[in-house]
Structures are given as structure tokens and as C-alpha cells.
């Protein structure tokens, strides 16, 4: 029987359980400084929960049962031997042989079970107390086992392929309530991200990115190509029509202002009536020019304007001086404070719009996201091509993670086991598996008795 774990009285047992259930501050300090292992991981192995205490009580009951069975066969053996010497008959020899073999089996299994957790009878026999003395090696072996058998690329890929994530995810997303849930979570995440970001930081980054991009990229050739395309398609003609029409209307409403401006610019020595005639003549010619240009699509001025725009588009693409002037103008415009303020205000407006849309369940943004998720889920649930793509993405990502970080994961297992206190770890493991191990002692007693009876019977038959 294991004398290193004596059964205690009720009060003593309760007090010991209470002491072990309380976390030891030294355990937390040890956990905090153990190679980066979280303190909670160590504390979980150095404290006993009520469920753990109940398991320990179950282990003690099974120990009493196994030990009681050992004592029972020992008593049977003594009585059978006494009966055999007293001339009770052949049956006593059979019972004594069975009881003797049962004792041997019970003692052998007691030694084997006890050797896992401590030195039997406190004697430091080699290769005993395996768990407390080999804890770190067991942690290394466990980490290597997990790495080789669970964190290999082939195992992960085969397991994920058997699961069929693409079809399952598609069927899940196709449910309206699930699409609503994902949409709400995405909206919350987006709103949280935009709330955390500081406007000044984002404005600075956006402004710097736009300015750097604009400075690096020459805009004159692109503008030339765009202008060339517009002129070739006649897209500028509506703009010309609008300008000419507005100019004619303005001249009709402000004829006096035009004539006064012409008269005001005349030399002081000319007669006033001559200035008035000249002003009237200039005004009428301007009015006639605008009216003809407005009403005549083939007006010579329109053709001249087309040729000017065509030549300007060509110069923007090929003329060095023109392109240099455009670049200098671009730099001056981007350097103005008004432009930077415009960029900053644009981010503020966009941010406010996105936050409002994320908060409103009936906003166009959330409705479109929900509809897209439902459509994606329906396609993923039915189209094998999309399922294959999703499965490939998931498998590739999972394989990348396990192959890249396999050593870190196995090191976490190794370090966590190494950080556990040997004594606490032994008691906790024994609490979880000790009850089943006590059945080994019981089975050893029973099987040993049957084997001893069989051997004795065979030997008697052969001897006869």
C-alpha cells in the first residue's frame, strides 16, 4: 500500500484541501518570470478547483478499494495455508495459489502505478517518480509529438479538406440571421477602427501620400491624352456652347457697362459723341460675334478653338517647355494651404459618412454588405469552383501558419510544462487519471489470482 499518501481525518483533509485551493502568491511570481509563459497557465497547474478536489477524493476511495482487495487476498492466502496444513483437503491448495498470485499481481501493479508519481515507500529506486523527475523531458516529447503529428502541413491540409470549409461557410452565410450577424460585427469593427484613429494622423498621412504621389507622377501627358480624346469626340463643344450662350446673355443685360468701359478707355482729346459711337459699335460687334458663334456650329472661331485645343493637347504630351510649366503649376497648387485644408476636410467628411452608415442598420452601406454576404454564401454553398478556391485559401493560410510558427507553438508547450511545479503537477495529474490507474491494481489482483489458479491447476494435472 502507498504509505506516502496516508488517509487523513475529515478535519485535516478539509484544511489541506482549503490550503491547496488558495493560489500561492509565490506561484504567480514564478509564473510571471518563466520565459514569457502566461501566469494563468502556471496558476492553472498550481491550484485545485472544487472539481479537482472531488477527483482527488475519488482517487482516494479507489485507493482504499484496491488496497482493501489486496488485504482481502492476503487474508484469504493466510486462511487457505492454515486450512491446507490443517488437512482441509486439496481445495485449500487451489485457493492459496490463487490468493498468492493475486497478492503478487496487486503488489506489482501497485509498484508500477506508484512509480509514475513518486518513489514507492519513499525509497529512491531508479526509474521511479517518473512524472516529477521527467516532467521537462515529457514536455519536450509532448511538444515534438504535437509538432510532428498535428502541426505538419500535410496533416493540416488533409484535415481541412475533409471538413469542407467552403461549403459549410457558404451554407452558414446564406442564412439571413447569420449574414445580419456578420454585417453587424463588421460595422462594429469598422466603427471602432475609425473611432480609434486620430483625425490629425490620418489627415497627415493622406495629405502626404497624395502630395508624394502627385509629385512623383507627371500629369501633363495624361492631361494631354485626355484633352485629345475630348476634342476628338467633340465633348468640348457643349462647354463652348454654354460659355458663348452665357456671354451673349451677359452682354444683353450689361450693354451699358460694356459701352461705358469702352468710352472710359478712349483718349481724353476725342469728342464724347465719337467715344459713344465707338462704344456702341464695339458692343454691337461683340453681341453679333457671340450670337453667330452660338448659332453657327461651323463658325470660324469654333474651328480655331478646336485647332488650339488640339495643338495644346499635343504640346502637353510632347513639348518639354509646356510640360515643365504644367509641373511647376502643379507644385504651386499642391503647396497652397487651401489644397491641404481641402484634403483634410475630405477625410473628415468621409469618416463621418462611413461612421454614420455603419451605425445605421438601414443604411445603403450595411444593406449592400448584407446582400453581398447572402449572395456570396449562396454561391459558396452551391458552386464547387468557389468552394475549391475558399478551401485552397484556408488551407494555404493554415499551412503557412503551422509551418512558420510550429517551433513557437511547440516551444510554448515545452516552456509551459517546464514552468509547472513538479509536486503540484504530479498531484494534479494523479487527480485526473489516478482513479483509472487504481483499476489497474484491482485488475492485477483479479487477473493474478486467475493466472495463479490456472498455473496451479495445470501443474497439479501434469504432476498427476
UniProtKB/TrEMBL annotation:
Keyword Transmembrane: yes
Compositional bias (Basic and acidic residues): 21-31
Coiled coil: none
Span list, region Disordered: 1-37
Keywords associated with the record: Membrane, Transmembrane, Transmembrane helix
Ranges of compositional bias, category Low complexity: 1-20
Record's keyword annotation contains Membrane: yes
Segments passing through the bilayer: 64-85, 91-117, 439-458
InterPro entries tied to this protein: DUF445
PANTHER family hit by this protein: INNER MEMBRANE PROTEIN, INNER MEMBRANE PROTEIN-RELATED
Identification of the protein by name: DUF445 domain-containing protein
Organism field: Streptomyces cinereospinus
Amino acid at each position: 500500500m502507498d504509505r506516502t499518501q496516508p488517509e487523513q481525518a475529515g478535519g485535516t483533509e478539509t484544511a489541506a484541501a482549503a490550503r491547496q485551493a488558495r493560489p500561492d502568491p509565490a506561484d504567480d511570481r514564478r509564473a510571471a518570470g518563466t520565459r514569457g509563459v502566461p501566469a494563468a497557465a502556471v496558476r492553472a497547474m498550481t491550484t485545485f478547483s472544487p472539481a479537482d478536489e472531488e477527483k482527488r477524493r475519488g482517487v482516494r476511495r479507489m485507493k482504499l478499494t484496491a488496497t482493501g482487495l489486496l488485504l482481502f487476498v492476503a487474508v484469504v492466502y493466510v486462511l487457505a495455508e492454515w486450512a491446507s496444513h490443517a488437512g482441509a483437503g486439496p481445495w485449500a491448495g487451489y485457493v492459496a495459489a490463487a490468493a498468492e498470485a493475486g497478492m503478487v499481481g496487486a503488489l506489482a501493479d501497485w509498484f508500477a502505478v506508484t512509480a509514475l508519481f513518486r518513489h514507492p515507500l519513499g525509497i529512491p529506486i531508479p526509474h521511479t517518480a517518473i512524472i516529477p523527475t521527467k516532467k521537462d523531458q515529457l514536455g519536450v516529447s509532448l511538444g515534438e509529438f504535437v509538432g510532428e503529428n498535428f502541426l505538419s502541413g500535410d496533416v493540416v491540409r488533409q484535415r481541412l479538406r475533409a471538413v469542407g470549409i467552403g461549403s459549410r461557410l457558404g451554407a452558414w452565410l446564406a442564412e439571413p440571421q447569420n449574414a445580419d450577424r456578420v454585417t453587424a460585427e463588421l460595422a462594429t469593427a469598422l466603427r471602432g477602427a475609425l473611432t480609434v484613429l486620430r483625425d490629425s494622423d490620418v489627415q497627415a498621412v493622406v495629405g502626404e501620400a497624395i502630395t508624394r504621389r502627385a509629385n512623383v507622377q507627371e500629369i501633363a501627358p495624361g492631361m494631354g491624352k485626355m484633352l485629345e480624346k475630348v476634342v476628338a469626340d467633340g465633348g468640348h463643344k457643349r462647354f463652348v456652347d454654354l460659355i458663348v450662350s452665357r456671354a451673349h446673355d451677359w452682354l444683353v443685360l450689361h450693354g451699358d457697362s460694356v459701352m461705358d468701359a469702352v468710352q472710359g478707355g478712349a483718349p481724353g482729346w476725342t469728342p464724347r459723341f465719337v467715344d459713344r459711337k465707338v462704344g456702341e459699335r464695339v458692343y454691337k460687334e461683340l453681341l453679333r460675334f457671340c450670337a453667330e458663334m452660338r448659332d453657327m456650329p461651323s463658325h470660324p472661331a469654333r474651328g480655331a478653338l478646336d485647332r488650339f485645343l488640339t495643338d495644346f493637347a499635343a504640346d502637353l504630351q510632347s513639348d518639354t517647355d509646356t510640360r515643365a510649366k504644367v509641373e511647376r503649376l502643379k507644385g504651386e497648387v499642391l503647396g497652397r494651404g487651401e489644397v491641404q485644408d481641402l484634403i483634410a476636410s475630405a477625410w473628415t467628411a468621409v469618416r463621418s459618412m462611413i461612421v454614420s452608415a455603419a451605425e445605421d442598420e438601414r443604411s445603403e452601406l450595411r444593406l449592400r454588405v448584407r446582400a453581398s454576404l447572402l449572395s456570396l454564401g449562396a454561391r459558396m454553398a452551391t458552386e464547387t469552383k468557389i468552394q475549391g478556391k475558399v478551401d485552397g485559401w484556408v488551407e494555404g493560410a493554415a499551412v503557412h501558419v503551422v509551418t512558420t510558427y510550429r517551433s513557437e507553438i511547440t516551444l510554448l508547450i515545452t516552456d509551459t510544462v517546464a514552468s509547472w511545479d513538479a509536486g503540484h503537477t504530479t498531484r494534479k495529474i494523479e487527480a485526473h487519471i489516478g482513479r483509472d490507474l487504481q483499476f489497474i491494481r484491482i485488475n492485477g489482483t483479479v487477473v493474478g489470482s486467475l493466472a495463479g489458479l490456472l498455473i496451479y491447476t495445470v501443474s497439479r494435472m501434469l504432476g498427476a
